[in-house]
Specification:
301 residues, alpha/beta, Rossmann fold, two-stranded parallel ribbon, 13% strand, binds ligand L4XM7KOE, binds NADPH dihydro-nicotinamide-adenine-dinucleotide phosphate
């Protein structure tokens, strides 16, 4: 784990020095002339996506709540000769999203691609969720993604320009436990994506999701080391992955290579979506027993 250009040492994941040189399948002008807005752009996956697309010629605009974190990320991108800027915004606040888009359309010259990577949750047994905790996760991941998506869609419609959106979700169908609030929110984002893929096709707007598996990023700080230790075994490839591996999926789906793809969820999870279960809290004892045969069905597990 190395120092970031911002002087911060991330606990997990690639730093800016890594992101500046990671090899990519995309050519240096794959995103030339494109402006890409990335929420969560100073976080793990968002930052990797910013580096990848900027290295491929895009003007990247980062957003998130923490202005200092954004400024540091932009400084290292610019120091590498890349086109980057930032403006803080809370995705839970539609007014701050409108202000961000005003700035992008007035000062940056418009938008081509939106990557919704702002998000997260905390690990907790669902039965213990507080109302505030539930609302924080739903508001960030479902409402926040919707507010950002709707604002981008309206601007593209009004400008008569095409657009492309990629929203980062989680693998909802199988195997991720201890984050039921997030599964609920992300299932909403996936349903929204499928609905909008149809409604917005006439507007020439494509919309897709990427569902990452175990990706080492600073966001992992909220998980207990004992559960993080099991993440390499959360998929048949038996490893965790880098934010770069998710960034390449975002670049594919948002770019011209996916021009006939809309309404999809691309799992970038090493096959984890077909595998066993993963816990973000310690696995309850109930699931650690041998299980019961039919003859034993009335016994305590
Ligand atoms: C099947 C294949 C899949 C395999 C996958 C395998 C491995 C998966 C790895 C884990 C899965 C996902 C990982 C990630 O997504 S990591 C990257 C994302 N980053 C984060 O999650 C960072 C932390 N989360 C956040 O910052 C969230 O955005 C959050 C919504 C929690 C932040 O909101 P806010 O800033 O408003 O948070 P507050 O601190 O103000 O809290 C608001 C209330 O929320 C409750 N809360 C918060 N934290 C906890 C906690 N740790 N425990 C219990 N409750 C919590 C609480 O009510 C807060 O209010 P109070 O502070 O007043 O009590
Ligand atoms: N890492 C993993 O293993 C996995 C991650 N994911 C998902 O991928 C996405 C990116 O995660 P990752 O990069 O790992 O996590 P990080 O925590 O590193 O990045 C998330 C970013 O979201 C921003 N953010 C959070 N809340 C808000 C808000 N209300 N408004 C604006 N920005 C906000 C944060 O910036 P700031 O604090 O400045 O607001 C932060 O930089 C998340 O949705 C995450 O849940 C899904 C599956 C697995």
């Amino acid at each position: 784990m190395a120092e970031t250009g911002s002087g911060q040492t991330p606990e997990f994941g690639l730093d800016d020095a890594d992101l500046a040189i990671e090899p990519t399948v995309f050519g240096p002008s794959a995103f030339a002339g494109k402006t890409v807005l990335i929420s969560g752009g100073a976080g793990g996956i968002g930052r990797a996506t910013a580096w990848l697309m900027a290295r491929c010629g895009a003007a990247v605009v980062l957003t998130g709540r923490d202005a200092a974190k954004l400024d540091a990320a932009v400084a290292t991108l610019r120091a590498a000769g890349l086109d980057a800027s930032a403006k803080p915004c809370n995705v839970r606040d539609p007014a701050s999203i409108a202000a961000l888009h005003d700035w992008i359309w007035d000062e940056v010259g418009g938008l081509d691609i939106l990557v919704n990577s702002a998000g997260g949750q905390f690990p907790q047994a669902a039965i213990d969720f507080s109302v505030k905790g539930w609302n924080a996760v739903i508001d960030t991941n479902l409402n926040g993604t919707w507010y950002m998506t709707q604002e981008a869609g309206r601007r593209w419609r009004d400008a008569g320009r095409p657009g492309s959106i990629v929203s980062i979700v989680v693998v909802t169908r199988q195997g991720l436990h201890g984050v039921a609030h997030s599964i609920a929110a992300r299932s909403g984002v996936i349903g929204l994506t499928q609905a909008l893929a149809v409604e917005w096709a006439p507007l020439n707007i494509r919309i897709n999701c990427v569902a990452p598996g175990s990706i080492e990023t600073p966001g992992w700080r909220v998980y207990d080391p004992s559960v993080i230790g099991a993440y390499p075994r959360s998929n048949p490839m038996m490893r965790t992955a880098t934010s770069w591996e998710v960034a390449e999926a975002c670049a594919y789906l948002s770019g011209d290579g996916a021009r006939y793809v809309t309404g999809e969820v691309l799992n970038v999870a090493g096959g984890g979506q077909l595998w066993g279960e993963t816990w973000t809290i310690p696995r309850p004892d109930y699931f650690n027993g041998p299980g019961r045969t039919l003859r034993q069905k009335d016994e305590t597990p």
